[in-house]
Hints:
By secondary structure, the protein is an alpha+beta fold.
Amino acid sequence: MSGDYETLAKNQPDIYYTKSSSNMKQIFSNQFYYQFKMPDFDILKERLETIEKFDDGDFTWGELCKIERDSYNVNDFFDILVKPVGMLSGQLGVKFNAKISHPWLNRYDRGGFQEIHYHDDCDIAAVVFLNDGEDFSKFYFWDSNHTAFTKPWIKILTQMKLSNIYYPEVKAGDVLLFPSHMLHGVSPHNSDIIRKTFSFNVIVTNVE
């Protein structure tokens, strides 16, 4: 059988392509995100300067990244953080009840980064971008399914400019919300200005 296959392969002509419009259909929707302008953004930044913060002793992650963190009491921010969650519900067209778990501030000095990870203790992850600038590190999503492709497919997808890394275009004042299973990270920070983001997790308790 192997010999027959090799002979057949050798006798086949080369395949040439004719460029045309794409008929590619994306069939599954398990990776997506929503991007909004953060409601009460200025109030959020003001509170971060005045509300009591805690050390990061309660964090169970961080060994593989280079980052400074401050933890906050969710009750001090609930009235603000509930608003983008409500916006997400409206965009999805589905009503659900949820709890917001403790929020935290991420600080990236020069060289700081966040390794690829996901959040296994919630349903929705959210990040608010507090500032931006030249040579700032970038938030990205990483597609683990990309590794299932064979080497020829990797070359094909590369020429099609389809990558396993996606960088959302974000600015200060933007908030991203996405399913917590999605792998994401932050590239190395190359600025002397400290990059700051504010993150929180959402646990869905009931879907109506």
